[in-house]
Structures are given as structure tokens and as C-alpha cells.
Design brief:
By secondary structure, this protein is of the alpha/beta class. Helix content is 38%, strand content 16%. It has a domain of 112 residues. Strands 2-3-6-5 form a 4-stranded mixed beta sheet, with helices on one face. α1 packs parallel to α2. The radius of gyration is 17 Å and the shape is globular.
Length: 161
């Protein structure tokens, strides 16, 4: 889990994925050629975010991974079982302790474990991610994005250039 000091923007979301790929994904899955991202419908990685799609294009190009995104339909992100398992364990771990600094947050989140084997890794991202970054039609059209037949607005694949 990444704790940011700035904002949850598309650039922050993409940087979090990039960080995960460099530190974990490429190590655990060195022969991977594809990446599947399950995302909710809103926030920085929402299906309507033009910058999210541009950032995915950059990520796919950098990693060489065929990147497929499947968004939960609007209003259904709470069906995500991973989030339920992760956030309930984190909440129980910090049990009302005051979150007085980013370091305290990262420490409390990163010390979360469960008897069933969940171990949470947490990092502090000190990057700056401004809001309101405009994406031109040309920039969006340059992303090698192919919508899927079923709800192409929610499900699409980005090809690495």
C-alpha cells in the first residue's frame, strides 16, 4: 500500500503500479507479458479519466506489458474482496490510534498481518501529483487502447508501444 502526501490523481495511481512492478511484480513474475488491473470506477483511476489512460499507455510502454484494465461498475467497488480483506485488517491493526504523521501511518499499515498469512507492505510516496492536468484529444488518441466488446468503457487493453 502506498501512502501519498499529495493527491490521489491518475499520475499517483500509475506511479503506484509502476513502483509495485519494479519492486515486486517483475521479481515474482519475471516472465510476465501481461498485467491485469481491477479498478473501481472513480477516483484517480476512474474509467472516465483521460489522464489515467495516458498514464497507462506510458506504463505499458515502460514495462512492455500488455495491460488490461477491468473497472468495477459504478457503485460496486465494495464488491472487491481484496479491499475488504486488506482494509478491514488495517483498520483492526491501528484500532483508533491517532495518525499523527505519514511515518506513523506507514508503520501502522506496514505492520498489519493476519493469521491467514496477509502481510501488508507500506511505503510513503513523497511525490507531487497536481490536479487538473489537461489531456488533449491527440494525447488520448495516441494511447494504443482497445476497448473490449463487453462494456468497452469499463474494460480495455493498452498495448505497449
Amino acid at each position: 500500500m502506498v501512502v501519498g502526501r499529495d493527491r490521489e490523481t491518475a499520475a499517483f495511481c500509475a506511479e503506484t503500479l509502476r513502483r509495485w512492478w519494479r519492486k515486486v511484480g517483475s521479481v515474482v513474475y519475471p516472465k510476465a507479458s501481461k498485467l491485469l488491473i481491477c479498478a473501481d470506477a472513480g477516483g484517480g483511476n476512474g474509467y472516465r479519466r483521460r489522464l489515467w489512460k495516458v498514464e497507462l499507455g506510458r506504463l505499458a510502454a515502460e514495462t512492455g506489458l500488455l495491460t488490461t484494465v477491468c473497472h468495477f461498475p459504478p457503485g460496486t467497488s465494495k464488491w472487491n474482496k481484496i479491499e475488504h480483506r486488506l482494509f478491514s485488517a488495517i483498520s483492526m491493526n491501528w484500532r483508533g490510534r491517532p495518525l499523527t504523521s505519514y511515518e506513523v501511518m506507514v508503520e501502522l499499515i506496514g505492520s498489519t498481518t493476519t493469521r491467514t498469512g496477509l502481510k501488508v507492505h507500506a511505503e510513503h510516496d513523497t511525490g507531487s501529483y497536481p490536479r487538473g492536468v489537461e489531456v488533449t484529444d491527440e494525447e488520448l488518441e495516441a494511447v494504443p487502447l482497445k476497448p473490449h466488446k463487453f462494456h468497452g468503457e469499463w474494460n480495455y487493453t493498452v498495448t505497449p508501444k
